[in-house]
Design brief:
By secondary structure, the protein is mostly beta strands. It has a 5-stranded antiparallel sheet. The model has no long low-confidence stretch (mean pLDDT 76).
Length: 71
């Protein structure tokens, strides 16, 4: 859903860092992913669930301008 939203906005994401739980050296469980758009003008933070290294389930995306809930 997030990738589809960013594509609709004409932006690509570039991951910067991850803070949270890991399993087998991959993000798994509760965590926070911090990344920038390809234009470098906006930091975005995804707080939510991860499974096997990917965003999974409920989370909240926060950027400089809006908050978007994803499920």
């Amino acid at each position: 859903v997030l990738e589809k939203l960013l594509t609709t906005l004409g932006e690509k994401e570039s991951k910067k860092s991850y803070q949270g739980e890991f399993k087998e050296d991959k993000p798994h469980g509760r965590g926070r992913e911090i990344f920038q758009t390809n234009k470098g003008q906006s930091n975005r933070i995804f707080d939510g669930q991860f499974e096997k290294g990917f965003r999974h389930g409920y989370g909240i995306l926060t950027d400089n301008y809006i908050d978007i809930e994803l499920d």
